[in-house]
From TrEMBL, chain A:
Main location group: membrane
SMART domains membership: NADH-G_4Fe-4S_3 (SM00929)
PANTHER family attached to this UniProt entry: NADH-UBIQUINONE OXIDOREDUCTASE 75 KDA SUBUNIT, MITOCHONDRIAL, RESPIRATORY NITRATE REDUCTASE
Start and end residues of each 4Fe-4S His(Cys)3-ligated-type domain: 96-135
Organism: Chitinophaga skermanii
Localization in the cell: Membrane
Protein family (similarity comment): Belongs to the complex I 75 kDa subunit family.
Molecular function via GO: 2 iron, 2 sulfur cluster binding; 4 iron, 4 sulfur cluster binding; metal ion binding; oxidoreductase activity
Protein name as it appears in the record: NADH-quinone oxidoreductase subunit G
2Fe-2S ferredoxin-type domain boundaries: 8-95
Required cofactor(s): [2Fe-2S] cluster; [4Fe-4S] cluster
InterPro entries linked: 2Fe-2S_ferredoxin-like_sf, 2Fe-2S_ferredoxin-type, NADH_UbQ_OxRdtase_ferredoxin, NADH_UbQ_OxRdtase_Gsu_4Fe4S-bd, Prok_molybdopt-oxidoreductase
From TrEMBL, chain B:
Obligatory cofactor(s): [2Fe-2S] cluster
Bilayer-spanning residue ranges: none
Alphabetized SUPFAM superfamilies for the sequence: Thioredoxin-like
Name of the featured protein: NADH-quinone oxidoreductase subunit E
GO molecular function: 2 iron, 2 sulfur cluster binding; active transmembrane transporter activity; inorganic cation transmembrane transporter activity; metal ion binding; monoatomic cation transmembrane transporter activity; NADH dehydrogenase activity
Lineage: Bacteria, Pseudomonadati, Bacteroidota, Chitinophagia, Chitinophagales
GO biological process: inorganic cation transmembrane transport
UniProtKB/TrEMBL annotation, chain C:
EC primary class: translocase
The family this protein is said to belong to: Belongs to the complex I 51 kDa subunit family.
Molecular-function annotations in GO: 4 iron, 4 sulfur cluster binding; FMN binding; metal ion binding; NAD binding; NADH dehydrogenase (ubiquinone) activity; NADH dehydrogenase activity; quinone binding
Entry's transmembrane regions: none
Task performed by this protein: NDH-1 shuttles electrons from NADH, via FMN and iron-sulfur (Fe-S) centers, to quinones in the respiratory chain.
Phylogenetic placement of the source organism: Bacteria, Pseudomonadati, Bacteroidota, Chitinophagia, Chitinophagales
GO biological process entries: cellular respiration
Residue intervals of the NADH-ubiquinone oxidoreductase 51kDa subunit iron-sulphur binding domain: 340-385
EC number(s) given by UniProt: 7.1.1.-
The protein's name in its UniProt record: NADH-quinone oxidoreductase subunit F
Lineage: superkingdom: Bacteria
Keywords, in A-Z order: 4Fe-4S, Flavoprotein, FMN, Iron, Iron-sulfur, Metal-binding, NAD, Quinone, Translocase
Origin species: Chitinophaga skermanii
Catalysed reactions, as listed in the record: a quinone + NADH + 5 H(+)(in) = a quinol + NAD(+) + 4 H(+)(out)
Cofactor list: FMN; [4Fe-4S] cluster
Length: 362, 164, 454
């Protein structure tokens, strides 16, 4: 018997890749990288049993294998379907897949509150990204969106059930990382919810990881809540000596202040190593950490704004953007706008300023 | 503290013995049925915690299951629950009229219990008695080919059973 | 009178009990198996019979059995799916209530064929009184030496247990059923692996419907080849049909699959026609999830042939003009019924029964119900009809389990065939609250395309 493992040849969107038997289509696509990688909202390579539920990673198998070339009758979840030798898969080259994916995004957003302006996940939200890439620009849903009774699951983790897409990742996390799971999926159908049933604090050395695995803003860090926008913070790699976890984290800083601590995430939004709650919630002093350097953030992410690397700033102005006029680099805003009134001295107004105070007739 | 009778505990052990060693979780649904029977027709958190301890499960495992299945009541219910089917085939045979009749007769809406705690009215989805429509489940049994007169008789029957 | 194989003795007083069942030829098939047949020979007979799964999908039973993995030292299981919950279907209940020993005998033979020493009957929780009947039958069969250790000196052991569900249609899906049997939430598993490889407790498992397993008894009694002579073509044997809705004689009928739909509805032997002289408007012949068809397409196919009560004839024309045998839940709508309202109750059913695991079904089923409710209550817009079509289209085929398809098909078929009734609801909102659209043209003979000139 040969020791050498035979690799399977798979073609995804006409790009061939050789992978080990047992690899899923999604992971084969990740080996190719780029646009052919299907989006995944529920699959998480580090959580056993995850995947298959959100249906965003559906792809078309146009040829089953060399041995059995028949196409699969339905679109399949690429995260849970393993490749066969000679398989041919269509992702972005299949209009059928793109249409189904558009449908899935619409379903996921159907009852989502779209409260991004007040959501701490905004800027690093998988659902935001997914909707931006694959969603429609308006909803066709004309009914009241689903709401839930709010429950408190402790002083470290905030649960916003209305934002949840029921990916089950947090349940797998609690099952696989902690010794006793205290929360789960309750109820059935579209009223299923993440809950503890009777109010309980989630309290465990590793339970904070549910925040990192949550693809949306359903589970957020209470110690960071409303403190800052992620794109105003600078993520840096740091480590510490920790007896519970590897101590390898990302610090989210502004100046010398540590706003939050998370695990380090790869380009698919998955953590590289899970971290413990002490690192996450209790080590908020920069002195606790050895800083390694800035984290690489995808150039397209909003978090990269203002931190452009290798970008050339234009030295000249472009006339075209102002209908051929010379742009004024320094401009007195009051010369072109009557909205503001520099003549009104705010310090002379008693109490808070009121719109009457800016009335022109005065 | 909720506690099964000796007889029920023996039944629990009998049920557990149906499954391979270590698979006692399989007994969860049958044992929840027993618990609901014993503890006033519904499952309180305390009852579910007790079931969890009997089967060596965590509480959340029990909550997850109990909230999934529609036959488990998670809030107190009346002594008699009228579960009227209103899916397609029953609808074709006038189940909506039966529901309205019961509503008027008992003065409650669907999902409510009469003030005396006797009757709860529920509408349910297909119970597999489509040929004998309209129908409802009352306790363990089905009441089929319902008419207003039959509903009256059933209500009287329940009241009498409580009266003696 | 049509020939019967399952219900031929149903009329005998006391057939529910062991003694009477045995005296009337019961357990003869089991006797034959233990005396003369090897397990593989039983499977071979079932294959020869052409028996197709009676739960709805119609997959060949013998083939399913032959897929069962048989690794050394790992137990195998047979699970009887008695979670009968498809609206319009109540045949398994009838079998279990009145002929429990027929099922037990079928389970015994099938377990022997598959090499399963433990067999579970998973029955829907609402059938709360039936486990008592089954357990009594199991006790009596055991006392007579048909269950337990070393059955009839064959060296084969078998225990049968009854497990009650607790109210979840989804547990009729075989992997959801196995999850539920393991004491978990009834959410379908993601396949592969299939139960034949990793089923109950991760062991190889076959899940079959009650009627399917009961049918194994007559197959052994008369032989697979003889059984295959009943019926028509690939629709071999007899089938239990649960007839309900607007008919004179609702109930469970055993039909040989060689009669026409028209005969089934109008003959005195079966449904006995439609009450009060009303006319037939529409029918769902195979349980709520199969497509509804108007009267004209029900009785004749688009090709102008008589539609028969067979798997092939019912699905003739595909979803464009045909429907399906499904689980045999035969729902008849007369001219006074409103298709919109009926579709709404089915949409509500699937919304209620969606397990919530995958997004298209979880979100889409509720959405369809809400849109349908608006149309039914006079608040619909013309665009809602297209919207409904689009929602169902994006659920179908994109979900983990067939519940998504089952929810999508009734809505799709209702719009496909009854679009003018939907439009009438939108255009006449106040009238639609007080009266129904009626029969309209749904029973008019359809033009039959002339045969193509060769």
């Amino acid at each position: 018997m040969s020791e050498e493992k035979k690799l399977f040849k798979v073609k995804i969107d006409n790009i061939t890749v050789e992978v080990e038997p047992g690899t899923t289509i999604l992971n084969a696509a990740r080996q190719i990288g780029g646009e052919v990688v299907p989006p995944a909202m529920c699959y998480y390579s580090k959580l056993q049993g995850s995947g298959g539920k959100c249906r965003t990673c559906l792809v078309k198998v146009s040829k089953g294998s060399d041995a059995d070339p028949r196409p699969m009758p339905k679109l399949v979840a690429s995260c849970r379907t393993t490749v066969m030798d000679g398989m041919e898969v269509a992702n972005i080259t299949s209009p059928e897949v793109l249409d189904a994916r558009k449908g899935v995004v619409e379903f996921l957003l159907l009852n989502h509150p779209l409260d991004c302006p007040i959501c701490d996940q905004a800027g690093e939200c998988d659902l935001q990204n997914l909707s931006y890439e694959h969603g429609a620009d308006a909803t066709r849903y004309e009914f009241k969106r689903r709401t839930f009774d709010k429950i408190d699951i402790g002083d470290k983790i905030q649960l916003h059930m209305t934002r949840c897409i029921l990916c089950y990742r947090c349940v797998f996390t609690a099952d696989q990382l902690t010794n006793k799971r205290e929360h789960g999926i309750l109820g059935r159908g579209d009223v299923s919810e993440i809950s503890t049933y009777i109010h309980k604090n989630l309290d465990n050395d590793f339970i904070g990881n549910v925040i990192d695995v949550c693809p949306v803003g359903a589970l957020t860090d209470k110690t960071f809540r409303f403190k800052n926008r992620v794109w105003f913070l600078k993520p840096v790699d740091a480590h510490c000596k920790c007896d519970k976890c590897s101590g390898k984290v990302a610090l989210w800083m502004r100046g010398n202040e540590v706003f939050r601590v998370t695990a380090r995430k790869d380009k698919y939004g998955e953590v590289e190593e899970f971290i413990c709650d002490t690192c996450r919630f209790d080590r908020k002093d920069v002195k606790d950490w050895v800083i390694e350097g800035p984290r690489n953030i995808d150039r397209h992410s909003v978090i990269s704004q203002g931190h452009y690397v290798g970008v050339q700033q234009p030295k000249e102005t472009f006339k075209a953007v102002m209908d051929g006029r010379d742009p004024k680099l320094l401009m007195d805003i009051h010369a072109v706008s009557e909205v503001n009134r520099p003549d009104v001295d705010l310090s002379k107004i008693e109490g808070p300023a009121h719109s009457n105070d800016f009335d022109k007739k005065q | 503290m909720a506690q099964f009778s000796e007889e029920k505990l023996q039944k629990v052990n009998e049920i557990i013995a149906r499954y391979p060693q270590g698979k006692q979780k399989s007994a969860l649904i049958p044992v929840l049925h027993l618990a609901q029977e014993q503890f006033d027709g519904w499952l309180s958190a305390e009852t579910m915690d007790y079931v969890a301890s009997l089967l060596q499960l965590t509480s959340i495992e029990v909550y997850e299951v109990a909230t999934f299945y529609s036959m488990f009541n998670l809030k107190p219910v009346g002594k008699y629950i009228f579960e009227v089917c209103h899916t397609g085939p029953c609808m074709l045979n006038g189940s909506d009229n039966i529901v309205d009749y019961i509503k008027n007769k008992l003065g409650i809406s669907v999902g409510e219990t009469t003030p005396d705690g006797m009757f709860t009215l529920k509408t349910v989805e297909c119970l597999g008695a489509c040929g004998y429509a309209p129908m409802m489940q009352l306790g363990k049994f089905y009441r089929e080919h319902l008419t207003p007169a039959k509903v009256d008789a059933i209500i009287d029957e329940c009241r009498k059973a409580q009266g003696n | 009178m049509g020939r019967k194989l399952l219900l031929d003795k149903a009329h005998i007083e006391g057939i529910r009990y062991y003694k009477t069942y045995r005296e009337n030829g019961g357990y003869a098939a089991a006797e034959k198996v233990f005396k003369t047949m090897k397990p593989d020979e039983v499977t071979e007979e079932v294959k020869k019979s052409g028996l197709r799964g009676r739960g709805g999908a119609g997959f060949p039973t013998g083939l399913k059995w032959s897929f069962l993995a048989k690794p050394e030292g790992v137990p195998r299981y047979l699970v009887c799916n008695a979670d009968e919950s498809e609206p319009g279907t109540f045949k398994d209940r009838y079998l279990m209530e009145f002929l429990p020993h027929l099922l037990i005998e079928g389970l015994l033979i099938s377990s022997y064929a598959l090499g399963a020493n433990t067999t579970y009957i998973y029955i829907r929780g609402e059938y709360a009184w039936i486990p008592d009947i089954l357990e009594e039958a199991i006790r009596d069969a055991k006392a007579a030496g048909w269950l337990g250790k070393n059955i009839q000196g064959s060296g084969f052991d078998l225990e049968i247990y009854v497990q009650r569900g607790a109210g979840a249609y989804i547990c009729g899906e075989e992997t959801a059923l196995l999850e539920s049997l393991e004491g978990k939430r009834g959410t379908p598993r993601i396949k592969p692996p299939f139960p034949a490889v990793k089923g109950l407790y991760q062991c190889p498992t076959v899940v079959n419907n009650v009627e399917t397993l009961a049918t194994v008894v007559p197959i052994i009694n008369i032989g697979g080849e003889e059984y295959a002579k009943y019926g028509t073509g690939k629709s071999t044997g007899t089938k239990l049909i649960s007839a309900c809705g607007n008919i004179n004689k609702p109930g469970v009928y055993e039909i040989e699959m060689n009669i026409s739909v028209e005969e089934f509805i109008y003959s005195e032997e079966y449904c006995g026609g439609i009450p009060n002289g009303k006319r037939l408007k529409a029918c769902i012949p195979g349980g709520s999830s199969v497509p509804i068809v108007p009267a004209n397409l029900l009785l004749t196919t688009a090709k102008g042939e008589k539609r028969m009560m067979t798997y092939e004839s019912l699905s003739d024309g595909g979803f464009q003009t045909g429907t399906m045998m499904g689980s045999g839940g035969f729902i008849v709508l007369d001219e006074d019924q409103c298709v919109v309202r009926h579709t709404l109750t089915l949409a509500r059913f699937y919304h209620h029964e969606s397990c919530g695991q995958c997004s298209p079904c979880r979100e889409g089923t509720g959405w369809m119900e809400k849109v349908l409710k608006n149309i039914e209550n006079g608040k619909g817009k013309m665009s809602d009809i297209d919207l409904l079509w689009d929602i169902q289209r994006r659920i179908e085929g994109n979900t983990i389990c067939p519940l998504g398809d089952a929810a999508a098909w009734p809505v799709a078929a209702a719009i496909r065939h009854f679009r003018d009734e939907f439009e009438w609801h939108v255009n006449n909102p106040s009238e639609a609250l007080t009266r129904n659209f009626g029969l309209a043209h749904y029973a008019d003979p359809l033009p039959v395309p002339a045969p193509a000139a060769v």
